[in-house]
Design brief:
288 residues; two-stranded antiparallel ribbon; single chain; alpha+beta; 6 helices
């Protein structure tokens, strides 16, 4: 059984418990004195997100071929709760519950709910990310790392190259280049696996897995082993930044082989109320 449980980079979102709509702060003028000011406002917008509803369209390069996924997502941040529907399979994950496992309705044989580890083989096979990277925070962390890498040359590598519409909404088009993208050797330290290494280096663990043919899975490394890792998340990143929300509603990442992954957020709702029962398996619209 293969479960295609999809999520994006890119990104983290969050929940509001009160019944009032939380105001969403953004720079209303949509004008910025420089690229750093724009990026700082993106980080502020990500930090201000409490809840998200969206339809996610993703394309990921899996074993050399682009694979398309679509999902409907409800997400809150504190405590983190996630509901995910993939045209059949459903996933519910609640922070601090179910021993850290996700409740999964596979929508196919064996026609029964399963409790699965988000980092396990069934949920993670042929996926760039786990459900824990769903939302905008993960992408924001990658961007912050990119800013550190380029230092005082940010305006050279982070450039607004125009405007574009997505879902009929006006967006700024931000291109982030890292022409020195390359692979380098890394020595595995005690207690590390590919996921912890990738988190430390702010790179894609799936990319690392695919580029080390002798490694069969994320925990298939040992102390002292030399592996190849990229020196950045990507060679080129193109983001569409919604001019109202100041959130990256389209992400395209390229590596040294070409297009690596894309994520688009459609029907995005930011900081609207998500009822507590919508994060329970008995909710009337679910099939757990």
């Amino acid at each position: 059984m293969k479960l295609r449980i999809q999520h994006i980079f890119l990104l983290s979102a969050f929940f509001v418990i009160s019944t009032t709509l939380i105001s969403f702060r953004y720079k209303k003028s949509n004008t910025f004195s420089n690229n750093r000011e724009l990026i700082d406002n993106i980080f502020e917008a990500v930090d201000n997100v409490k809840t998200l509803r969206f339809d996610l369209q993703c394309n990921e390069r899996i074993k050399g071929r682009m694979t398309h996924y679509e999902s409907k997502v409800k997400l809150q941040v504190s405590p983190r709760k996630l509901y995910l529907s993939l045209r059949g399979p459903e996933v519910l994950w609640i922070q601090g519950q179910n021993n850290g496992n996700a409740l999964v309705n596979p929508g196919a044989f064996p026609y029964m709910n399963l409790n699965l580890d988000p980092y396990g083989a069934l949920m993670r096979k042929d996926q760039h990310h786990t459900i824990h990277e769903m939302g905008f925070q993960y992408l924001a962390d990658v961007l912050k790392d990119g800013m550190k890498r380029v230092g005082d040359k940010l305006d050279k590598y982070f450039v607004v190259v125009g405007e574009e519409k997505l879902n009929g909404r006006n967006c700024l088009k931000l291109a982030i280049t890292f022409p020195d993208f390359a692979w380098t050797s890394y020595t595995v330290k005690k207690g590390e696996n590919l996921t912890s290494i990738a988190r430390k280096l702010r790179v894609s663990e799936y990319m690392v897995l695919m580029n080390n043919s002798k490694i069969s899975w994320y925990n298939d490394v040992k102390e002292g082993q030399s592996i190849q890792v990229p020196n950045a998340y990507g060679k080129l990143t193109i983001l569409l930044i919604d001019k109202e929300y100041l959130l990256p509603v389209s992400n395209k990442i390229f590596d040294d082989k070409g297009l690596y992954e894309t994520y688009e957020y459609h029907n995005l709702e930011v900081n609207t109320i998500i009822l507590p029962e919508e994060f329970t398996k008995g909710y009337k619209e679910y099939n757990f």
